[in-house]
Each structure stands twice: as C-alpha cells, then as structure tokens.
C-alpha cells in the first residue's frame, strides 16, 4: 500500500514537472494543454452532475475541485472518485446465504414493538431482539480492559475487524493475546481496512499468519490500478468472541485511543460491550465483510452452525444492529438514524467528531428544533484534521439560527465518540459519524439501544461532556473574522470528499 501511494505521488509529480518544463521552454503549447485539461474537467463535471447518484454536496465538491485545480482534480477523481466497489456474484451469493441462515435462527423476536422500532425493523430488515446486556465503555482504558479480558476467555473463536490498527504497544498487546489464543486452539480471524491500516507492516501481519491466524484485508491496494479503492473505506470496529460477547463503537487500536498522544490532553471516546442475543447480528456484520474479503465458493457454509450462532440470552435489554455501505442499494444506517431523529418528542443529543450533514439531515434537524424539540450537538474543540474540523464550522450558522444548541468540546482534547440519544430513552452507538462519508461512502455499523441502563449511562456521559464543552452563540458566530468565515465555507465545500 505504501508503495502504491508513492507510485501515485511520483506519477502526479512527474506530470506536474513535465507541464512545468513545457511552460518554461514551450509556453506556446501550454494554452492548448490547459485547455485540454479544462475540457476534460468540464466533461467529467457534466458526467458527475447528471450520472452520479451522490448527494448534492459531494457533487459540488468534485465539480469545484475539477474546475479550480483541473490537473490535480482529474488525478484525484480517476484514482479516488470512481465508484467501482461492489460485491461480485460469488461474494453476493455467500453473503445472501449467511443472511438467510441468520434470519431463520430461532431468536426470540420481540412481539410488541414501538412505532419507531417497527419502522426500523421494516426499513433495515434487522430484528429487534431482547435478552441482552449492554455495557457502555466510556474511554480507552475501560474499553481495552474489557476487550482483553473477553479475548483471554475465548474458547472457540475470535472474530476481529478494525478500520485502524496502529503498530504500537497496544497493537503488540493485542497481537500477543491473539497468538496465544490461537496456540490454545481458538480459531482467530483478523481483518483490517486496506487504507485505514495502511501503516500496519507485513511483519506484523506475517507474525499472525505464522500463528495460524486467518488474516484478510478489506480492499487491499495491491497495484497502482487498485488505488481507486482507497476512497471506499470499511470504517467498522467489530469484535465477536465465541458468538456470545461482542464489541463495537468508536475506538480503533492505537496508543492515542488510550490518551497516549502529544497532540491531545485527552481522547474522549465510547465503545459498547454486548452480551446476549444481539451478538448474532454483530456476528452477521463481521461475517458479511469476511465473506466479501474471502471471495470464495462455499465460504459461508462453515459458519452456519451453533458454534458461531449459539443464541444465548443474558439480561433484558432490547436493541438492533444496523450495518450498511456503498455496496448496498439503500443507505440503511443513515435512514435508521433519520427515523430515530424524526421520532423525538423532547430532545435529541448528538456527539460526533466529524459533523458534515447532507442537505436532508440538516433540514431534518432544523425542522425538529424549530418544532420546539431540544437539539444538542457536541463537536470537537480541537480537530485531528484541519479540513474536517473547519468543515464542521460551515454548518454552525444554519444550526444555531434554528435554535440548535452546539457545543465545542475541550480545545486541548479530542472528542471521537459517535453517539445519539433520543428523549433519553433510545440511543445509538457505533462507528458511524454524522457526516456524508459515513452516510454515503463508508461501510459502517451502529447498535440501536431501545432499553437498558446503558442509555442512562450514555446520557450521564453526554451531560459530563457538555460541562467540558463551550456553547457556541449567534453573537460569537457574527463576530468571527472574515478569514474565519471564508475558511469555514471553503472547508465545508470540500469536507464531503474526506
């Protein structure tokens, strides 16, 4: 992957160097060359406007990129903008076989559903299941203590997928546990995203394979041609142990998620531990991706046993697991979240590190707030990426003017949790940011909690986060410098591409 990225940069550099040389020694040809690039950019822009099915803001971002930086823009689109990701016939058949098997398991679907539960069940095709225990893990220390404890107790299998695994002390500890469990006879399957874990070395992966651990990479970039896959990321974080315990949420694997970083004083994140019937749906989400990565005939059949789907019950909490991505016809995760927002009668509370809503979400939140429902949103006070951070600011005026309460978290720390709470009665937690990338481009997973003490824990944590945050006022927005306003508007236009 590193080699492929270098190849892309070298080709782009050589192209620009060649054009620069032509400009110096043959300036009369430059007008023809630039006209050609501009013509290609215009034709590609027409294609994007009339043929692409992206949301409007994504189309605008690409068109502006092509118009203002046509040479670089063409390269970026050709290698990062093409929609070439889909399941082939083998993958699709195996995935459908798995889903059919899970749908016919003898799980105890709830008979009496609320209006929003029924809507989300119909919309997503995923059952609302009782018989669970949800445990909210508020920071990195609590999260990885729980994860490592559960991994050490594994007896039959460990299924693990992460968007990012950074090769540091935390990753080494994870590797050591996985290798030891594999030596004990536990089946370990390890997956990572091809872009998010780009820096994960061959040595790290080979050490897992040498321990008889199955390793797969989601959309690996094995050649220069495959770099087009880089934009279609699998952002999920899922662990399933023995089909009985599962984890999902906002945390990847790396020291920074423990707060060990020089850039931030604290890393604020949230994860979820699930025990009980709903683990079957987390297992399905993991295996759906695993079958995509394996891409082989009959790969689903080995998982259609009680060993992988034991169907246990522990507790009385009710919930759903929703997952989706660009290989799906509908944007299921986004639409389920919209259903929840539209069901609010008193309050919506959202925390997200990247808040770049599409037009529909922005209109929905503004309408809900203008109807008298309290809407609270916490975003970072200090960003990990400048374009995304200032892109958040693009929407502040539209939010605050509708009566939405927007807070910026501690400006020395980073807020990375992705949660939403509706009326303090329903909550969501998962990998899904409240931005266009998560809604339209990434593969995401979210757990919907319809009952349980975990909702009260998330609510209490949200209130603590507000104490550590600063409310944005209309006066403050009006007094921003001209440069701050321009910077926010420019970043807001291009943020949908990140």
Give the count of structural domains. 3
Choose one word for the global shape. globular
The CATH topology of the largest domain comes to: Endonuclease, Chain A
CATH architecture of the largest domain: 2-Layer Sandwich
Number of strands: 19
Which structural class fits the helix and strand makeup? alpha/beta
Helix content percent band:
40-55%
Distance between the termini: 19 Å
Give Rg in angstroms.
23 Å
**CATH fourth-tier homologous superfamily of the largest domain:** Endonuclease Chain A
State mean pLDDT (0 to 100 scale): 87
**Count of runs of 4 or more consecutive helical residues:** 18
CATH class of the largest domain: Alpha Beta
Query: What oligomeric state best describes the polypeptide chains here?
Result: single chain
Question: Ranges with pLDDT <50 over ≥5 residues?
Answer: none
Determine the strand fraction and express it as a percent band.
15-25%
Protein name: Cardiolipin synthase
Main location: membrane
Enzyme class: transferase
Keywords: Cell membrane, Lipid biosynthesis, Lipid metabolism, Membrane, Phospholipid biosynthesis, Phospholipid metabolism, Repeat, Transferase, Transmembrane, Transmembrane helix
């Amino acid at each position: 992957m590193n080699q492929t990225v270098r190849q892309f940069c070298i080709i782009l550099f050589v192209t620009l160097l060649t054009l620069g040389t032509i400009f110096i020694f043959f300036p009369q040809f430059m007008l023809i060359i630039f006209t050609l690039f501009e013509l290609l950019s215009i034709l590609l822009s027409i294609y994007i406007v009339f043929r692409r099915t992206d949301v409007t803001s994504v189309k605008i971002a690409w068109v502006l990129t092509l118009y203002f930086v046509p040479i670089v823009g063409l390269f970026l689109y050709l290698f990062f903008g093409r929609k070439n990701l889909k399941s082939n016939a083998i993958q699709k058949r195996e995935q459908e076989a798995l889903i059919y098997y899970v749908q016919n398991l003898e799980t105890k679907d709830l008979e009496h559903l609320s209006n929003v539960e029924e809507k989300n069940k119909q919309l997503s095709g995923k059952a609302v299941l009782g018989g669970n225990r949800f445990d909210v893990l508020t920071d990195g220390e609590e999260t990885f203590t729980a994860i490592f404890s559960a991994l050490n107790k594994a007896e039959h299998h460990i299924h693990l997928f992460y968007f990012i695994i950074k090769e540091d002390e935390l990753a080494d500890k994870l590797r050591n546990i996985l290798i030891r469990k594999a030596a004990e006879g536990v089946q370990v399957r390890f997956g990572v995203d091809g872009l998010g874990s780009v820096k994960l070395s061959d040595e790290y992966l080979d050490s897992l394979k040498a321990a008889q651990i199955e390793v797969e990479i989601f959309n690996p970039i094995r050649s220069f041609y495959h770099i087009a896959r880089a934009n279609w990321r699998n952002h999920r974080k899922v662990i399933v142990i023995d089909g009985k315990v599962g984890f999902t949420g906002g945390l990847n694997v790396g020291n920074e998620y423990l707060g060990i970083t020089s850039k931030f004083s604290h890393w604020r994140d949230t994860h979820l531990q699930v025990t009980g019937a709903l683990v079957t749906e987390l297992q399905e989400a993991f295996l759906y991706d695993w079958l995509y990565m394996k891409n082989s005939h009959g790969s689903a059949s080995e998982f259609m046993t009680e060993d992988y789907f034991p169907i246990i019950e522990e507790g009385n909490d009710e919930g759903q697991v929703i997952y989706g991505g660009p290989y799906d016809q509908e944007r299921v995760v986004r639409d389920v979240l919209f259903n929840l927002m539209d069901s609010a009668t008193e309050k919506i509370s959202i925390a997200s590190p990247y808040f770049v809503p599409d037009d529909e979400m922005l209109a929905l939140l503004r309408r809900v707030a203008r109807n008298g429902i309290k809407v609270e949103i916490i975003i970072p006070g200090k960003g990990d990426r400048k374009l995304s951070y200032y892109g958040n600011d693009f929407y502040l005026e539209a939010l605050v003017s509708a009566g939405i309460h927007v807070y910026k978290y501690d400006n020395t720390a980073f807020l990375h949790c992705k949660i939403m709470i509706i009326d303090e009665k329903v909550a969501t937690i998962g990998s899904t940011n409240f931005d266009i990338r998560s809604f339209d481009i990434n593969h995401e997973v979210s757990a919907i909690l319809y009952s349980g003490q975990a909702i009260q824990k998330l609510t209490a944590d949200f209130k603590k986060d507000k104490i550590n945050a600063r409310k944005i006022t209309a006066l403050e927005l009006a007094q921003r410098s001209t440069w701050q306003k321009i910077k926010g508007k420019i970043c807001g236009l291009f943020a949908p591409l990140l």
